[in-house]
Amino acid sequence: MSTSDLLTVEYGDRADAVLLHVRGEIDMGTAPVLRGHLEDAVRRGTDAPVLLDLTGVGFLASAGLALLVEYHTRCRDEGRALRVLTDGGAVLRAIQISSLDHVLEVHPSVAEAMSADHAGG
Questions:
Q1: DSSP state of 100
Q2: Which of 56, 41, 49, 51 has the alpha carbon at shortest distance from 91?
Q3: Cβ distance 49 to 58 under 8 Å?
Q4: Domain assignment present for 43
Q5: What is the CATH number of the domain that holds 33?
């Protein structure tokens, strides 16, 4: 199985955010693929939030967690938000076990992530 079989990333169509839909597994082998897409999303030049939809991800290893922290920091330093979307399961468990739920913006849906703008977030 190739890396592309283990992880797919697609852009969503939104004018108010850069939305990435991720499916598969994020580990040491696939994290570089996700890094390339996150880099592209950040370079899109707006101050709109980057929404990283991980609801289709079944496994999130430490390499993926490190990537989330790296791009959270990078987006924050550039005056924008990285918002992680997860509806539970292994992804949320990995984020919570590593206490990154106190660092990252984690939301269960696009609607809730976008409402964070209106709530001062």
A1: G
A2: 56
A3: no
A4: yes
A5: 3.30.750.24
The verdict on residue 119 lying in a domain is no
Burial class (CB in 10 A: 0-12, 13-18, 19+), 2: exposed
Q: Which residue has the tokens 């913006």?
A: 105
This prediction has a pTM of: 0.92
Per-residue pLDDT of the chain (121 residues; tens, 9 = 90+): 445 679 999 999 888 999 999 999 999 999 999 999 999 999 987 889 999 999 999 999 999 999 999 999 999 999 999 999 999 999 999 999 999 999 999 999 999 999 987 554 4
Beta bridge partners of 7: 24
Q: With respect to residue 15, please indicate whether it lies within any of the assigned structural domains.
A: yes
Range of the domain at 52: 3-109
Domain count, the chain: 1
Q: How is the beta sheet containing 7-11 ordered, strand by strand? A: 7-11, 18-26, 50-60, 82-85, 105-107
Measured CA to CA, the distance from residue 51 to residue 74 in angstroms comes to 14
Query: Is 115 among the domain residues?
Result: no
